Amino acid sequence: MSNKTLFLKSGFIKTPLQNGIGRYVCQLQRITLKFCKNHGASKGLRDFIENDMLDFAKQYPGIVVYVKPRRHRSPCIAAEYLNGDKETISCHNITREEILKWLNLLRTQSGNSKDFRLRKLWHTDSPSIQGPWTPFTFRNSKTNLAEFPNKELSKPVFLPKSATEELIELFQEQQISSADKTEPTK
Question: When comparing pLDDT for 147 and 157, which is higher?
């Protein structure tokens, strides 16, 4: 494992509280499309602006779309989210369909999650006082000292008695009771 993740900011998973329960709020605030008017690497972004940008802006009116021409610079998409995160994607020599896919990805995310190291893979706002549950939480402690394979511990825990086992038990009880009756008292 490399040490590059040690220098990332760390924390827990943060999502907008109950987003989508009452009304969904898109977390993408604004998109800036930066391109060059003449450079060949910006052709896909220029095609997207000419053909698909108005449809995208009409379909998602909550996202502000800025177009910023820049001379002799590589094309990119800059996204800003409601939580203050910013993300930049290079659009060097990509088609307009790929740009639309990138915009849909940015639209459905809730921020820049690449530069973030998770402290734990799970998090809760109300942690348990008793600790996390494990499969061994309520097990009998005699299994700690047992030598395996153990015939007694290998049996199923909740298995009902078979008819044969019940008959054997009844027979043994009759043998014991009849032995008690025939034994002479002193």
Answer: 147
